[in-house]
Write a structure and sequence with these properties.
Blueprint (H helix, E strand, L loop, with lengths): L1 E6 L4 E6 L10 E11 L1 H7 L13 E2 L3 E9 L11 E4 L2 E2 L7 H4 L12 E3 L3 E2 L6 E5 L3 E4 L10 H17 L18 E5 L3 H12 L3 E6 L6 H8 L3 E4 L5 H8 L4 E4 L4 H8 L7 E4 L13 H10 L3 E4 L5 H17 L1 H6 L1 E5 L5 H5 L6 E5 L6
Parallel strand pairs: 8-9, 12-13, 12-15, 13-14, 15-16, 16-17, 18-19
Antiparallel strand pairs: 1-2, 1-4, 3-5, 3-10, 3-19, 5-6, 6-11, 7-8
Helix pairs in contact: 3-4, 3-9
Length: about 375
Amino acid sequence: MKAIAVFPAGKEVRLIEKEEPQLVKPAEVKLRILEVGICGTDREIVAFQYGSGPAGSDHLVIGHEALGVVVETGPAVARVKPGDLVVPMVRRPCPHEFCKACRSDRQDFCYSGDFTERGIKARHGFMTECVVEDERYVVPVPGELREVAVLVEPLTIAEKALSQYRVVQQRLPWEIRHSPDDDLRHTAVVLGAGPVGLLGSMALVASGFKTYVYSRGPASDPKASLVESIGATYVATQNASIERLARKVGNIDLVYEAAGASRAAFELMKVLGTNGVFVFTGVPGRKAPVELDTDLIMRHLVLKNQLVFGTVNAGRDSYEAAIRDLGVFMQHWPDAVRSLITGRHPIEAYREPLLGKPRGIKNVIALHGSHG
């Protein structure tokens, strides 16, 4: 079967042939991979910034945003059956008994750092024709979401962030939530209009936030029209400084950072509102140091009761929430959701979407299905 792999020692990216995997354990399922989304992580791995293969392997099969169909199950499998659409999870637990997170099936909060990740760290990924997986790590998807279900994994980032936001903001029990009064709605600013930012915007709007997307693209960018179509407001950085953005928005209750641009993120942190929460989802590359007014940031964090947290990967609850919300998005904004996927490519044409200049919003490798 075909697979896309990186060979770190020789700094090569190749289409390779691998032996098709077979079921070995009773609780395993075999998946035929239909589609795999390409994200910034994949592009960084093929640029050899990071990524590691399994122990003893000279290569890593990439890809972690996948949609598959079950073709075979072991005798102990109870959650899925052949013919079911599923999204496989990315992270696998570390082996340490002291890690309470991994022992509780919440390896997204792993304490040891010795977790593995499909297509990223020490475990082959999904950019191949078939994989075998433990049924614990596959999440069923309704058939009506087939055309957009490859977006589930990137949406889990927003779902996990929102679930944590709701928990920490229970510190404010007097807050009016999801008010129909426009002046009382919570406000959110999304930094960045890539797939994670746009999916996050949809999740925020669906959750009742008055949502603004702050991005480098001009107001004429198609992404701006997409943002406006879901009921959010697009603000181009070239048309509004961060200070002007803050005046437009008012008290900013939540910042959802989805750009991986540290300078812009910390500048935006300066205008986070009273009792506000700032969520980091991006992982910036190593660049030159930037100057920051750390006194101002620290003063605001203390005097305005602000919170800052980062979120990475996701647990099963976030996958289930993403599948549920993707169905909601398709009911409200079907054209906007479909427009997030701007290119489907056969596996043989992997080089342009993976190694070429980034184009569109979300590019997908279609292994068994339509492309073009």
